[in-house]
Amino acid sequence: MPPLAGTRVPKALLCGSTNFTENGVYRQANVVHTIDHRAPAEGYLRLFDLIWDDPADVPATRKWITANNPIYAGQPLFAGFSPRSGKTDLAEFINIIKAANTDVLFATAFKLPDDVLDALLGAPNDAVLRFGIQNTASRITGFHADRTAEFTTPALLSKGLEGWVKEGLRGQRGNLLVHTKAVVADFTTDSPVVISGSHNLSVPASNGNDENYLIIRGDTDLADRYGLEILRFYEHYRFRYYAKKLKLQQARPLEINDSWTAPYYTAGHLKESARLRFSGR
Predict the structure, then answer these.
(1) Which entry of 143, 165, 173, 210 is 20 to 30 Å from 37 by CA?
(2) CA 36/CA 34 separation, integer angstroms
(3) What 3-state class would DSSP assign to 271?
């Protein structure tokens, strides 16, 4: 039956962390996600209509989302919203991160609650590879494989490097920021989980802000896209950090023999895990 004249029929949606501003598009690390499925688009439309009718009534929005947008673990595609009561979104994010068996990749922007930080950090000497960056300083800024190799990010190269132009913020509107909010669990497996959206993985984002996010399970092609993008920024800012250390003569020089390869062939070492998962041999 065709829709009635004047009614909206959602067919696709566009969402993500990108603000519709020059900074959001041109000066920040962000993500835009498109979905050509009617069901999640309908969910966004229902929430839009609710907020449109009374945008100032945050308690009413929170009550409606809590009742009508429950989180069911295991769904292949879940479109979630906030504000909601009970921090059930944060609990699900934590469950996904803690359930990872092989690796966790992440890019986050703002201050995170301790339980989310604990999940991202993991247990000491566990077998999960962890690579990620966070724009706001906390117990995690940049994260390389385990707790022994954290680094500061973003790193501004204000003095430049040999062959590189020094950087500055003069004349720039807004800061260069990591604004992406995304997590990929079990990136190198056939059962990855992607969390992506405007949700900051924080308590205010859960119970106070109008936010949206996607949880997508089992889509290896999509997980590859998210994972490689996170690793691209991770490697970029990690290079910046060590470039600054090198300028200060704090970095160790390169080894003159192959002794540096030993951990990559030591059973149980995280570097062995990285070699096997990323090179396959």
Answers:
(1) 210
(2) 7
(3) helix
Q: Which helix (H) or strand (E) holds 217?
A: strand 211-217
Euclidean distance between CA atoms 57 and 98, whole angstroms: 35
CA-CA distance, 4 to 214, in Å (whole number)? 30
Cβ-proximal residues to 140 (8 Å cutoff; 6+ apart), any chain: 112, 117, 120, 121, 132, 134, 150
Give 128's Cβ-side CA count (13 Å radius): 23
| Local confidence pLDDT in tens for the 281 residues of the chain | 455 556 778 889 999 999 998 888 887 889 999 999 888 899 999 999 999 998 889 999 999 999 999 998 888 999 999 999 999 999 999 999 999 999 999 998 888 899 998 898 888 778 888 888 887 766 666 555 555 566 655 556 666 665 566 666 665 555 557 889 999 999 989 999 999 999 999 999 999 999 999 999 999 999 999 999 999 988 888 877 777 776 655 556 778 899 989 988 988 887 888 888 777 66
Question: And the tokens for 149?
Answer: 């190799």
CA distance 52 to 258: 63
Q: Are strands 177-178 and 28-29 parallel, antiparallel or unpaired?
A: parallel
Cβ neighbour number for residue 69 with a 10 Å cutoff: 19
Q: Are 123 and 100 a contacting pair, CB within 8 Å?
A: no
User: Is the separation of the CB atoms in 227 and 129 below 8 Å?
Assistant: no
- At residue 26, φ and ψ (nearest 5 deg) are -110, -15
